[in-house]
């Protein structure tokens, strides 16, 4: 020993115990985020017009709308379905693709507009923006590729789950257990990247 104190390692976000604020009031989303991050998270209702051209732009807009205090970090996500033969639609307008936007209406409208499409490739995309107390903003993304099936299948999940079958699987997301869907999904993948980012 040379008598000097060891150089302290920088503390990780978990060790510093920063509070995580999530821009959502959706309890389902909050629970999923908390479970995957292994952290307690707090929901925060915000109102912004999600009129960005990309998922990233909308996630950043939402996260900037949260005023964080010292010791807090904020998270916001935006996600949706992009269908190849529709040139990426419904995309950022996924939630508003049918009126009223019930899961059944969204799926029926999608199958309807895809009647003439022989190529059925599609992907779910999720962008998560994180705002740190020092003003930095980072974005992580998760993508799951798959196909749009010919008919609505399964009763679990939400949104377009009954018409999306991920590559390499026979079941649609709506036919899978929530745990299985979380392992494969765009949101699950983005959250795993976020967990990695927060532990660095
Ligand atoms: P938001 O990111 O919560 O605004 O979701 C946008 C829309 O994309 C939702 O309303 C759904 O219609 C669709 N969507 C996003 N993620 C999923 C998913 O995991 N399954 C099915 N539909 C989804």
Automatic annotation (TrEMBL):
It is an enzyme of class 3 (hydrolase). It holds the Pfam family Ham1p_like. It comes from candidate division WOR-1 bacterium RIFOXYC12_FULL_54_18. Pyrophosphatase that catalyzes the hydrolysis of nucleoside triphosphates to their monophosphate derivatives, with a high preference for the non-canonical purine nucleotides XTP (xanthosine triphosphate), dITP (deoxyinosine triphosphate) and ITP. Seems to function as a house-cleaning enzyme that removes non-canonical purine nucleotides from the nucleotide pool, thus preventing their incorporation into DNA/RNA and avoiding chromosomal lesions. GO terms for molecular function: dITP diphosphatase activity; ITP diphosphatase activity; metal ion binding; nucleotide binding; ribonucleoside triphosphate phosphatase activity; XTP diphosphatase activity. The keyword Iron-sulfur does not apply. PANTHER family: INOSINE TRIPHOSPHATE PYROPHOSPHATASE, INOSINE TRIPHOSPHATE PYROPHOSPHATASE/HAM1 PROTEIN. Mg(2+) binds at residue 78. Gene3D superfamilies: 3.90.950.10. One of its GO terms (biological process) is nucleotide metabolic process. It catalyses: XTP + H2O = XMP + diphosphate + H(+); dITP + H2O = dIMP + diphosphate + H(+); ITP + H2O = IMP + diphosphate + H(+). This is dITP/XTP pyrophosphatase. InterPro entries: dITP/XTP_pyrophosphatase, ITPase-like_fam, RdgB/HAM1. SUPFAM superfamilies: ITPase-like. Belongs to the HAM1 NTPase family.
